[in-house]
Hints:
Elements: H1 3-25, H2 28-40, H3 44-47, H4 67-75, H5 90-102
Amino acid sequence: MDKLGTMHFCALVLIGSWSVMGVAQESAADFSEGRALFESYQCWQCHGYQGQGGSAGVRIAPTIYPFEAFLQLVRHTNLMPAYSPNVLSDENLRRIYEYVRSIPEPPALEDIQKLSLY
């Protein structure tokens, strides 16, 4: 790897470390509050309790979207009922977003032993 490639790699590792540290500093209370909001605004009815999606809504967890995109999808959409800031504040929407971000990626199908034929 050349010097420029090494510098890019180090920068990516450093940025990734900051991201992980930021998530680690989020308290469990923040995530449980986001989950409570997710449930009280009935997001689960279309997106499932783990954000896995269903017949009425798309999979939203784990989300790769930045908060700004998530906000636009919730506020201005034809795909689901839009929630205005009068109904769902930006602060509570951010808590829901943080909860959705905290949901881990599900295991690959081939890694689920009960689905294995052998």
